[in-house]
From TrEMBL:
Protein name, as recorded: Monocarboxylate transporter 11
Species the sequence originates in: Crocuta crocuta (Spotted hyena)
Record Gene3D superfamilies: MFS general substrate transporter like domains
Protein role: Proton-linked monocarboxylate transporter. It catalyzes the transport of pyruvate across the plasma membrane. Probably involved in hepatic lipid metabolism: overexpression results in an increase of triacylglycerol(TAG) levels, small increases in intracellular diacylglycerols and decreases in lysophosphatidylcholine, cholesterol ester and sphingomyelin lipids.
Sequence ranges assigned to domain Major facilitator superfamily (MFS) profile in this UniProt record: 26-419
Bilayer disposition of the protein: Multi-pass membrane protein
GO-annotated cellular components: endoplasmic reticulum membrane; plasma membrane
Catalytic function, reaction form: pyruvate(out) + H(+)(out) = pyruvate(in) + H(+)(in)
UniProtKB keywords: Cell membrane, Endoplasmic reticulum, Lipid metabolism, Membrane, Symport, Transmembrane, Transmembrane helix, Transport
Compartments where located: Cell membrane; Endoplasmic reticulum membrane
Domain of life of the organism encoding this protein: Eukaryota
Keyword DNA-binding attributed: no
Similarity comment: Belongs to the major facilitator superfamily. Monocarboxylate porter (TC 2.A.1.13) family.
A Pfam short name: MFS_1
Length: 459
């Protein structure tokens, strides 16, 4: 009789749900991911406004100062698999909170920099490492909370990039004019500390098919076995090429506007216009993808190609007319680029559950960030080098737009890399989430490798 007063086992009290809740606390996770995206990529996009001041203060070239943002992008993305691996072992909540503290310390350290090397270490290495711990775990956790509205939820979270750019671009220019670049970086250190409470909102969610224990060994924890799948390898190659040009406007769109004769606030307006188009397109693209009218792989190809064409348009603006008419043309080109780049962004992460299964989406997110880091490391310095050699950013944007177009060509092989679907002998129907992700592509895909993998079929 006395044993009856003891509580029931935890597993009996909180059984695993049948699938992602597709809402509920997931919207709080979406809000946290929105803020994480804004305080990482949104801040990086606006940080280009400070590069001319850094180049003047340290008397260095555009190429040298471009490495500050390029290193931050590269470290953030290259180390993203580490953030994913740590979150699979310890959970996303503590990893993101620690990453927020590291990012804030990186900005504070950089505010007292005496050379570009200090900025490379502060913003590039320390802040970049903190960003690496926040983005992939937050976005991967969000994908686990949604099924039918997954791409829309991801698109909503990724609008934090555009919304943050819209607010931070003029705000950062005001801080630079009022407090100088040192005071601006110090205040940004206080702003980025808000990543820590965002991490506290990432409540863990147990789903059927999750492994009973975290993966052991660095190879399994990083999810490197996903490259053994042909579809993911094709996707990885195309994404790496797209990354070669995708992040150049994050660093050099504002300096490009300054080169065309705009003042600081005019350049900030160009960045803001691109940010508005980016934010709105992410929501529309996410909604469109969830309708299932067009396969995600085809949407991915189309919007990647449009992003490359948008960058070409930005680069050709100096050839489009007189100096007086250049301002309006640059605004239009920046808006077109923002619309296409914003449409592309949620599709990159929304297609992952259909390629690797929901059980491997956190690891796959980190790997995608690592792949894009290759381009993020080389693209902005190459752009700065071409600017130093030619005197403007025309060749820079033309070259980087070509990288994105090459990546979109690689995506054309994605449907052929997916294995064909055959009638399943078992009575169990496939999960609805995978059918919705790649609605017309015939494929039978497995989630992350291992005996505990969940089956994810796309027919």
């Amino acid at each position: 009789r006395r044993r009856g007063v003891f509580p029931l086992p935890q597993t009996a009290m909180t059984p695993k749900p049948a699938g992602p809740p597709d809402g509920g606390w997931g919207w709080a996770v979406a809000a946290a991911a929105f803020a994480v995206n804004g305080l990482s990529y949104g801040l990086l996009r606006s940080l280009g406004l400070a590069l001319p001041d850094l180049a003047e203060h340290f008397d260095r070239s555009t190429q040298d100062t471009a490495w500050v943002s390029a290193l931050a992008l590269a470290v953030q993305q290259a180390a993203s698999p580490v953030g994913s691996a740590l979150s699979t072992r310890w959970g996303a909540r503590p990893v993101v909170m620690v990453g927020g503290v590291l990012t804030s310390l990186g900005f504070v350290f950089s505010a007292f920099a005496g050379s570009l090397l200090h900025l490379y270490l502060g913003l590039g290495v320390l802040a970049g490492s903190g960003w690496a711990l926040v983005f992939a775990p937050a976005l991967g956790t969000l994908s686990r909370y949604f099924s039918r509205r997954r791409v829309l939820a991801v698109g909503l979270a990724l609008t934090g990039n555009g919304a943050s750019s819209l607010l931070l671009a003029p705000s950062l220019q005001f801080l630079l004019d009022t407090f100088g670049w040192r005071g601006a970086l110090l205040l940004l250190g206080a702003v980025t500390l808000h990543l820590a409470p965002c991490g506290a909102l990432l409540r863990p969610l147990a789903l059927p098919g999750d492994p009973p224990a975290p993966p052991r060994g660095p190879f399994a924890a990083l999810g490197l076995g996903l490259f053994a799948r042909r579809a993911f390898s094709v996707f990885a190659l195309g994404t790496a090429l797209v990354g070669g040009g995708y992040f150049v406007p994050y660093v050099h769109l504002a300096p490009h506007a300054l080169d065309r004769g705009l003042d600081g606030y005019g350049a900030a307006l160009v960045v803001a216009v691109a940010a508005v188009g980016d934010a709105g397109a992410r929501l529309i693209s996410g909604w469109l993808a969830d309708q299932g009218w067009v396969p995600l792989s085809r949407l991915l190809l189309v919007f990647a190609a449009l992003t490359g064409l948008g960058l070409l348009a930005v680069g050709l603006v100096p050839l489009a007319g007189s100096q007086e008419g250049c301002w309006g043309a640059l605004l239009a080109a920046a808006g077109a680029y923002g619309l296409s780049a914003g449409s592309y962004a949620p599709l990159v992460f929304g297609v992952l559950p259909g390629l690797v299964g929901v059980g491997g989406v956190v690891q796959a997110t980190g790997l995608v960030m690592m792949l894009m880091s290759l381009g993020g490391l080389l693209g902005p310095p190459l752009s700065g080098f071409l600017r130093d050699e030619t005197g403007d950013f025309t060749a820079s944007f033309l070259a980087c737009g070509s990288f994105i177009l090459c990546g979109s060509v690689i995506y054309m092989g994605l449907p052929g890399a997916l294995p064909s679907c055959r009638p399943a002998p078992g009575p169990a129907p496939p999960p609805p989430e995978s059918r919705e992700l790649l609605p017309v592509l015939p494929a039978a895909l497995l989630s992350s490798g291992g005996p505990q993998s969940t089956r994810d079929t796309s027919c």
